[in-house]
Design brief:
The protein is of the alpha/beta class. The chain has five helices and five strands; from the N terminus they run E-H-E-H-E-H-E-H-H-E. It has helices at 13-29, 49-78, 92-103, 117-123, 126-133, and strands at residues 4-9, 32-39, 82-88, 107-111, 138-141. The protein has a five-stranded parallel beta sheet, sandwiched between helices. Helix 1 packs parallel to helix 2.
Length: 142
């Protein structure tokens, strides 16, 4: 069946639910997991905005590190082999798709915020983009 599961996270409570579901599945079938957090790069700004952007970028990377450490700890507690990775990409969905291919993952397990209608069109959905473009099967946890 599945041997290597990719689990994307953004550090949110909903993403933690996706991690829990992915780890439970991995444990039940004896698969290993890779957990990815994608940080979108910020444009370089000049003047007084530079410090604000630098502070936000540092805060986001700290959030990523914390989320990945939590996922690794949960995997260890579940007895599941886990690798974590931090990626930087302007298109998070593409980073997820690329990571699945690069790591040889045969399933992506991710959560969805469940946006629909105008909200989804305006905000977009990483999950929807992964579903539409990935060659790897995707399991979505609401």
């Amino acid at each position: 069946m599945y041997r290597h599961i990719l689990i994307p996270t953004d550090g949110s409570e909903l993403a933690r639910h996706g991690i829990a579901q992915g780890l439970a599945l991995a444990k039940s079938i004896g698969a290993k997991v890779s957990v990815i957090f994608v940080v979108e790069p910020l444009s370089e700004l000049t003047g007084h905005f530079r410090e604000t952007v630098a502070n936000f970028a540092a805060m986001r990377k700290e959030q990523a590190t914390n989320a990945l450490n939590d996922a690794a700890r949960s995997a260890k507690e579940a007895g599941v082999s886990c690798e974590t990775m931090l990626a930087e990409n302007e298109q998070p969905h593409q980073a997820i798709i690329d990571a699945a291919a690069d790591k040889g993952c045969d399933l992506i397990v991710m959560s969805s915020h469940g946006r629909s209608g105008l909200s989804m069109l305006l905000i977009g959905s990483v999950t929807n983009k992964v579903l539409a473009q990935a060659k790897t099967p995707v399991l979505v946890c609401p």
